[in-house]
Amino acid sequence: MLETLLKDLRHALRLFRKSPGFTFAAVAALALGIGANTAIFSVVDAVLLRPLPYPAASQMVLLGVKSPQGQNVAGSPAKFEYWRKQTSVLQDVAAFNTSFVNYTGGTTPEQLRSAQVSYAFFPLFGVRMRLGAPISAQQDLPNAGHYVVISTPLWRNRFNSDPAIVGKSISLGGDPYTVTGVMDDFDFSDFDQTPDVYVPFQFDPNTTGQGHYFTVGARLKPGVTLTAANAELAHSTQAYDEAFPNAIGKGGAFFAVSLGDALVANARKSLYVLLGAVGFVLLIACANVANLLLAQAAGRRREIAIRTALGGSRARIVRQLLTESVMLSLAGGTLGLLLGALGIRALLAVNTAGLPRIGEHGAGVGMDWRVLVFTLVISVGTGIVFGLVPALTSARADLASEFKEGSARSGSGFRQNKARSLFIVTEIALALILLVGSALLIRTNLALGNVDPGFDARNVLTMRMAFTGERWATTASVAQAIRDGIQRVDAIPGVETASATCCVPLQGGYGLPFTIAGRPLTNGPYTGGAAWGTVSPGYFEVFRIPVKRGRTFADRDDAQGTPVVIINEAMARQFWPNENPIGAHITIGRGVMKEFAGEPERQVIGVVGDTRDGGLNNDPGPHMYTPQAQSPDAVNALNSGLSPLAWVVRTRTPPEALSAKIEAALRAATGLPVSSIETMNRVVSSSTSRQRFNMWLMTVFGASALLLAAIGIYGLMAYTVEQRTQEIGIRLALGAEGSRVQNMVVAQGMRLAVVGVVVGIGASLALTRLLASFLFGVRPYDPLVFVTIPLLLAGVALAAVWWPARRASQVDPLHALRYE
Hints:
Blueprint: H1 2-18, H2 20-49, E1 60-67, E2 70-72, H3 77-86, E3 90-103, E4 110-117, H4 121-124, E5 129-132, E6 147-150, H5 152-159, E7 169-172, E8 175-183, E9 197-200, E10 215-220, H6 226-243, E11 253-258, H7 259-299, H8 301-309, H9 314-350, H10 369-395, H11 399-405, H12 418-449, E12 460-465, H13 475-490, E13 495-501, E14 510-516, E15 528-535, H14 539-542, E16 547-550, E17 564-568, H15 569-575, E18 585-588, E19 601-608, E20 623-627, H16 633-642, E21 645-651, H17 659-670, E22 675-679, H18 680-687, H19 689-723, H20 725-733, H21 738-767, H22 783-809, H23 813-817
């Protein structure tokens, strides 16, 4: 058996050396198809298949509330305490949230990544300690003091691997924190960049806070399934609703989702669509190579007939031909593996599309054993798939007719090329599907590019600063720092205006309920809900958000001034549809959490234009803006702990050139470092990175499919013309005009193209529904796309058919009649 296989391999190698053009064309087509599949599978592997780096990760879940409006995987202090104490299906229920904190123990403050966690975070994620111990249950209680666990990199780089660090005090935000331990190497990149320090939440066990600003994870108890856990959680919702009326909402219920599913929920469908798309590219490549093999087999009919006459069985011949096709596929797979690895690394270095679990610049995507096995399996499988039809066709040789014909070439019309014609129809249909998909995504990207976000992102620079610690616990201290910072930044030549905010557009924010004075309560104890954020004077001028009514904030809107609020047009339309909201009074967030207990009733002083803070593909919703200088101290402290304050600066010149000066001015004003420096143009671009990623890949796949289809139909028509040389010569000798011969060949080729286009249109109409959730500003059945793409493909097919047809019309009859 082994000896026979070696003979087959040697024979295949000799054949490939004799036909370098055929070998190159086949390997190149397969490398393109297999390489594209390998590239996308490597991303699928990193995102969907690679195990999470936590012990018993399959039993880990995230908790939240689901309702008719959707699912919210987040927790409030009250819900967290309830989940921790009231359920019998969960263990290691832990709260966690990432942010920034300033290390103030050195000569200059240094911004560190931080995490607020409950004590169960460490056993839930299987954190091992290099030194000391994790935060304990007692240290996670209110007023227990300041404690911190530090990461190994921080311990090494900042504290010189001090073996006596445990028990020592380090300064964070100007406050002393006692180090309880040093974590062993720990990877938290599935959620965010791995923090440098971990501090306890210290929730009050009797809290009533309902604000959702952190994540809650847990582990299912041994023997408990996710289905059973969800049933128990849903059942427990009623008791929570009785304890905290209106805290969940109508039709709401607690639920759990597996950690793996939660992390990749937003990427799973798009990756499956891309995987299906590259599968089509591979099928087109297979059809192309199968056509090449059929054409080659036609020239080997006499060889195969002789081998059969000498006693070679059909199975033996099929095995030899399949060996050749699998060798071609393995060669294409080897080259494709290299092309796929280089291609996906280059693409992810430019745009990671916000995909989870792939690391910075796609560092987490690699060629591990799953990718190598996938490439091997798909290479062997592809070789069998595209080689089987040519092998079976060639093995059915008719000895009598082959030896009777000798070496003469007989006419070979389309009836004798049914298999090749079917492959061409398949190629064109698949190419049209991919081109329709890529055209829809291109139109989506163009539509997103033409969306007015409601603000002017040009020449705006953003940067973050963490106001944490006792020094910044009061609103007055932060407000003064903001005034000082803006004054210094405004003095820089080239700066137009500056401001500060909790929430930069398109980078997330908060939502709070509100009540309107004198209105009936229609949403539980509230009138409604809206996005909310704090801003300082100049914010609307920085982003050039138009003022529709009233005025914007001024320096007089401070703690001594009348409490005020500005709303957007969407909120005015929804809650004041037929009246002027200026002068109305609303109360924001009171009753949601203790930090808002001191929130005053505010007067509406202005209505501004809508901004698409939730994404360019989402319509603006109600939005409320309050002056940062009027935030209650507790709200100020809460905001400072949740996320760094954002400085926003409009410049008259490209903002990158002024970045260093602005950073220096802010540090001089506050004594604090900044981070996350980026232009607003980049923020806008990042918000649509997933759409661009999908568009570019689908465009590459569509272009590859178009090229392969064009090569395929050209190759078929060129081969058909070659096989019919004698017939064409006779037609011309009998007086047929060259134009008639040319038209005959074009008509035969275009019939295949039209059939492929029709089949492709039908399949596209069915499959574009899968793209509906990825589209914006264009329908899945967009008439422009479904007219333009078939015409484009038909035009390419016509060009591919025309050259062989033209050559047929120029055949010399005398030469053709002697042609063998």
